[in-house]
Every structure is written in structure tokens, then in C-alpha cells.
Amino acid sequence: MGLSTKPLSTLHEKSSFDLADFEVPTGREEEWRFTPLSRLKGLHNGTAVGSGTVSAEVSAPEGVLVESVGRDDSRIGSAYTPADRVSAQAFSSFEKATVITVPRELVAETPISVTLQGDGQGAAYGHTVVVVEPMAQATVVLEHIGSAVYADNVEFVVGDGATLKVVSLQDWDDDAVHVAHHHASLGRDATFHGFIVTLGGDLVRLSPTVAYTAPGGDADLTGLYFVDAGQHLEHRVLVDHTVPNCRSNVTYKGALQGDDAHAVWIGDVIIRAEATGTDTYELNRNLVLTDGARADSVPNLEILTGEVAGAGHASASGRLEDEHIFYLQARGIPFDEARRLVIRGFFAQLLEKIEIEEIRERVLGAVEAELSR
Questions:
Q1: Domain ranges for the chain
Q2: Which InterPro entries does the protein's record reference (predicted)?
Q3: Rounded Cα–Cα distance for residues 367 and 175 (Å)
Q4: What is the pTM of this model?
Q5: CA 264 → CA 43, 91, 222, 253, 256, distances in Å?
């Protein structure tokens, strides 16, 4: 693929901790054109008063440090600077942040569980920092439940030679609104596996981003979503390759059913001039199950150097293959069961990446419940 003549990075060039540096979005901006602003309940324009609560309950294995700190803590904002108005609003509005530290060379034997539960009483803002020090290993499960109008930022700082695996489960009540940025900063030879599962909520907009601070970083970003009637589920991925010899792989799959079910996936990968030896690929697949559902999928790949190990992207949206259903029906399987088997197969490869059996079975059960609606 040739060099880009119009740098994609202009979409992501603005970042600031100051809310005043971001204009209120109108919906005409490229980064907001798919998002129904009227359903954000004021998160984008400052009218969402922080009168609600999203509580954070953390369960961590021995040796992992969990702290509740104020915004004056030097670790807050050390890896990520807000890149849009909602993110800046969240940063300027949270009261306490949760900081989780996995000490150097510690291998956490059990997952770190973070349960974020909304009380449904109004808007709330949050901030979470996960620091995995050099040569340490950990798995973090972020679970979002309850009702909320919630905006937050999550920073993952993965040290040299460290490994962090994250499962983020959005299982909100039907009326919830959630806008979040998840940013991973990778050190030398660091490994980050992020798995996002989005099922609940009225409107959910998640922006996972990855940046590399030294060569050898390896990022694998996976997403699974199931969109029902009236839901808007949006995922905006950015992987910014700025140093040599790093890898990234992005795979997102979603299914949609019902009137006005809307999925949005934006996949941006930037390979800057100094990022020689980069190996990257991104893939999005959408399965449209009924009339009235809509999937927008926009992969973007900007390459500013000719010295890459590999770079590519693919995107497709379509309906169930009639021949697959016919094949199963011809062997005595009823239509509804045949349909369920095909959709389960569509997600199977992704579900295998969830190493925590309890979470994997729960997600599979949630998908089955969606199919039975």
C-alpha cells in the first residue's frame, strides 16, 4: 500500500487536559458524525451535572496494590491526555481515581476484578489507572453494570517486558449512556491484550487507543458486540505506531438485530515515518440479522514509511449465508437452532481468546439470550 497523501493523524492531533480547548461538537465533525449527540444526555456539552454515582469495587490478589487517589496524584494523566471534549470533561470532573499497581516481576495468579456499578441517579465521571511494572503479568476484568450516564478515562501503563490482559464487559441496563477512552501505553517488549464485550446500554461509545514508547511492543485488540433494536454501540480504535519493530492486531465482530440497531466501528492505524518494521492488521465483520439494522465500518490505514513488515485491513457487513442455514436444515436441524449455531460460529474464534472460563461462559450465555429475543 502506498504512502498516504492526506495524513490521518490530523483526526487525532488535538489533545489537552483543558476542557476549553475543545469546542462543543455539533455532529458535523468527522469524529462525531456517527454519534447521536442528543442521546448523550449532556456529556458532550457540559450540561450533564455530576449528581450520580458509579461505584468502583476492586478485588485483587495478594501483592497487587489498590489505591483511591485525587487528581493531584502524579500517575493520573501520565500516559494519556484527553483527545476529545467528553474525555476532557471526564478528566476535569472526576473526584477520586482508582490506581491499581502490579509490582515489578509479580505474576498475579488470579484476575484483578473491577466492578463499576451505576446508581441511576444522574451523570457521573471516573478515572482508572492500571500500572503493570516491568516483567510483571496480570489480568484485569472491568465490569460495567447498573444504570448510569457515565464518562471515564482508563490508562493502562505496561512496563518493559510486562504482560497485561484486559477484559472490559459493558453489561449496562437498557437506559445507560457510557462514553469512555481506554488508553494503553506499551514499554519495550511489552504485551497488551485488550478484549471488549459490549452488550448493554442505550448508547455506548468506547475509544480504545494504543501507543508505544519503545521497540518490541505487541498489542492485540479484540471486540465483540451485539446490538439490539434502538441501541447505538460505537467503537473507535486508534493504534499509533511511533517506534520501530512493534506489532498490532485488531479484530472486532458484531451482530445486529431489530429496528434502528446501529453499530459503528472506526479502525485507525497510523504507521509514522520512524516506525520501521511495523507489523499490523485490522479486521471488522458485522452480521446484520434483520431489516432495519445498520452497521457503519470504516477502517483507515496511514503508512508514512515504506519499510514495514506487514500492513493491511479488511471490513465487511452482510447477512447470514442462506447456504449455511440450508446445510444444517438439510441434516434435520430446525431453522432457529441452525441460525443460532451459525451465529455462535461467527463469534467462536473471538470467544476462545477469553481465557477466563467464567467470563467466556457468561458472554456466550448473553449472546444466546440476545438470539432468543
A1: 8-319, 321-373
A2: Fe-S_cluster_assembly_SufBD (IPR055346), SUF_FeS_clus_asmbl_SufBD_core (IPR000825), SUF_FeS_clus_asmbl_SufBD_sf (IPR037284), SUF_FeS_clus_asmbl_SufD (IPR011542)
A3: 19
A4: 0.93
A5: 19, 25, 15, 11, 11
